[in-house]
Design brief:
With 60 residues, the chain is mostly helical. It is 92% helix and 0% strand. It has two helices and no strands. It is elongated. The relative contact order is 0.19.
Length: 60
């Protein structure tokens, strides 16, 4: 498990949520979509880290 990678994923998720919220406030659909995409990317990154952890536990 890479704490650094998890922190980056969490930061990407927060950034995406902020961008989506900003887009909702201003009515900017593109910003909302980009924010949701960043959140999806963060979810994938967390899943990758979970898979790495599982493999490590299996090997150990």
């Amino acid at each position: 498990m890479s704490i650094e990678d998890r922190a980056k994923a969490t930061a990407k998720d927060i950034e995406g949520k902020a961008q989506e919220a900003s887009g909702k406030l201003t009515g900017d659909r593109e910003a909302q979509i980009k924010g949701k995409a960043k959140q999806a990317e963060a979810k994938v990154r967390h899943s990758v880290e979970d898979a790495k952890d599982q493999v490590k536990r299996t090997i150990d």
